[in-house]
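User: I'll paste a sequence; please echo it back and then give the predicted structure.

Assistant: Echoing your sequence first, then the prediction.
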Amino acid sequence: MFSGKLPQVLLQSVVFIASIAGAGRVFAQAPVVTELDPPFGVRGATTMIRGQNFVNSGLKVFFNGVQSASASSSAPSQINAQIPANATTGPIRVEQAGGVFTTTNSFEVVTNQPYVRWFDPDSGSTNANVTLDGLNLAVDPLPAVRFGGVLSLSVQPGAGQNQIVVRIPANALPGPITASNSFGVFTTSSNFTVFGSGPQILSFDPPTGAPGADVTVNGLNFIPGNTTVRFGGTNAPSVNVTAPTQLHVTVPANAVTGPITVATPFGTNTTATNFTFGLAPQIAGFSPTFGPVGTNVTIDGANFVAAGLRVSLNGSNIPPAKVTIVSGTQLRVTIHTGQTNGPFTVATVYGTNTTTTDFIVTGGAPQIADFSPSSGPTNTTVVINGYNLIDVTNVAFGAVRTANFSAVSPTQITLKVPAHAITGPITVQNPYGSFATSTNYSLPVIFTGLSPATAPVGATFSVLGTNFTGATALRVNGTPTPFAFVNDRQIDVLVTTSMGSGPVSLTTPAGTFATTNSFVIQPSADLGISIAPDRYPIAFNEIAGLVVTVTNLGPRTATNVMVTAGFPFNFLQTGGTLGGMVGTVTTNESTMNAEVPLLGASNSFIFTLTARAIGLATNTASASVASATPDGLQANNTALTALAVANAPRAGIRQIETNVAEFYWPSNWPGFRLQTVLQFPAGVSWTTLTNPASVTGTELRIQTGTTNPASFFRLIR
């Protein structure tokens, strides 16, 4: 069952309003409309609005902006609203305490014109009956009803109060149903499908084609899966009905010129005009294969016809006046001004074919197809192959011209590489233009120097010369080394510890070439650094030290050695000292810096930092070193160490035997000693027990006599 207009409501806007009730907050919910039943009506009638959260508090209902005089909510899911006397077709808006909702679909306000709510069935054969339900249908006079624009000759009242029964006319067409009276016309949004009508052909396109071509046929009553098409009596291999009014069909291989026939189980229809069948042109060859403008060329092949004939050279059409059909197997064309080297293409209404070889237009700008060899020194003989080379006036290697060349034919030149030529493209020129190769002719590398010829690790030096273009590899002392191509005359190289001193070699398309002089790596310093705490773990509020050791592994003396180190955030730095070394120490909020003017090879110094532990945490301390002297290995220029701050250990005591006690504390707290005193007034001196502590499991233990009951003991580091 299909309805002309479906009751469909979408959320458009919701506004929430909050109200205070007593001590708590109550939110009135916004209304939500899900259905209008029915979605049409006459003025003064009542329609039902279904949805959610409906209340009578502040309830207002508007029909296309006109307020209903009577609207009430009988339940949270239902509102009954009277259609205003001056309402018009449009959306319904519901307002109440808590929000507003406006439908996106319109409510149809019906006056005296027909309105079709649904029709049943949605398809049928001619002379069958269809029931229409809606408004202003079963009133006298009954409305006129059309199927796809064709008038029904039988309209009768139906069983329902607002129903009519309509007979499908004999010549009905697929499409919407329309109902009309003197007050207006209503058209259904969905189509009615008519069965039993034979196909009709209105047009087809294109009017000509070759085997495999796609033809579009427009008409009526095409049935998917049950429609056949014939070209001059030959069935098409593929028929695709995309709509009752259109189909696509493939031209069969053995089709003949003639009408197109479309058949369904309900009938057959044939075009009044013919579809012209033909084969795509074929090209066997052409002669001559080159020549100037005005040359007559004969093209041999098959299927050359006048219908849609078009001949082009390299994509440029030859004027029709310069194309002659000698026969179905031969064409004669004249080369036109402005045309360039390329293939011939012959096209007709039946297809297109293009030659696999080019026609060369002589007297035009030169073109280079290839050259050989691709590299070599000056005075090398080079052969250039291409087109329009007979009248070349200038040849250059990388912008250096040569006068030593000769045109062997319109397609070939031989020449000598001139003195002072540089790596670059080969350029040829004639009175009609010039052409430069996309690839270079490569000449041997010529070195002029290394700048500087000696440098430390980490520095950069330049290789100078010419013909560096296209360089693919560089080696120093035989070691492959990364490089940066600056231009044809300069390449930059970063000095690394792995390359070593020695000659520089460069590989280009012309070969591999080496300098006669060597690059020498200057000696550098190698600074190493380590860091370690003077105790682990560290007791809370205890002053701890970080010992930073810096060593110059050589071979050069390091100058302006700068050390940066520091405790993490849970320490308060108290100072720093240099052990046995001339230098300066500076402190900022988070780090300490030590600077030593000179540090000889194989020498070292210690930088000690102290700080008070002010927070319980496990963190990491770091240290780094740098100098003004190049450092050949920077991987050992930084160091890390762990620092743990915890509450100091407490000693326990247990009785071993009469007058013998054993004191114990965790063994992971080394450096602590046990002290005793007989009295405990202020200012007394504590005595350290001399008997050593022993390690038992996870405990450090000391045994001592306890003959004096007034003895006191403490654990201290």
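The chain is about 0% helix and 55% strand. The mean pLDDT is 88.
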